[in-house]
């Protein structure tokens, strides 16, 4: 039997890769929520909708079996916007699912969904709580720092920098740990989640196999690319100051809210949970081989 899925966030890096993978699976009928950016033509049915418009969401989920919710606001200098989109928007989508008899809700959250991780992290944590009390069959996945082809995230940008430039800025803080995860592994885990219709009431971390400091990450990238790099160590306080300055200038490349995300304590992989999604993440060096700048 064909499973009808609504995918949100399909115009993003991860969402676009998930959409293309799902299109190759004959057991899925896919609709994607289109908000502002256009979607790839001919790959799915697109439905207009806005997480802030409950009526549009009622139409979007009509006839769906499962909602895979990736859409989120990740960078904003206005902290209230995170709660408007990530929390209230998710609550609006949950209400539409309940009203239209959707059976299952898969929520793509983040490893930084912690009370001390800043406004974005807290908005995602509160949204997780809303999902858990919704009454729907639910699954929550918490990806780590994704990298790989098709992504425009910080790990990709850092790899490009290490390849090209002799001097690399390095955040000097032992609490700033990363677990880069190859995006193809996350995509495959999400597809498996959709196929595993009986899997419910689980929160699963999808992180890379190794936790490392920012400095360790730069060293491993340098070794992989066979280059020697000079690291200019910068304290987390100076990074935060830079983010504040950029934010005041209206530049959201780095926002103050990203700093607590970096240094909050994050959960690592739980092998017993990972096995539920056949998730076996690649080593960093394996994933870096797929990047071509």
Can you characterise this structure?
With 293 residues, the protein is of the alpha/beta class. It has a domain at 3-146 and 181-208 and 266-279: NAD(P)-binding Rossmann-like Domain (Rossmann fold, 3-Layer(aba) Sandwich). Helix content is 40%, strand content 20%. The strands form 4 sheets. The protein has a 7-stranded parallel β-sheet with strand order 3-2-1-4-5-6-11, sandwiched between helices. Strands 7-10 form a two-stranded parallel sheet. It has a two-stranded parallel sheet with strand order 8-13. α3 packs parallel to α4. The termini are far apart.
Blueprint (SSEs and pairs):
Blueprint: E1 3-8, H1 13-23, E2 28-34, E3 45-48, H2 54-60, E4 66-69, H3 79-99, E5 104-108, H4 118-132, E6 137-143, E7 146-147, H5 154-164, E8 167-172, E9 177-178, E10 181-182, H6 183-195, E11 202-206, E12 212-213, H7 214-224, E13 230-235, H8 236-248, H9 258-263, H10 271-274, H11 284-288
Parallel strand pairs: 1-2, 1-4, 2-3, 4-5, 5-6, 6-11, 7-10, 8-13
Antiparallel strand pairs: 9-12
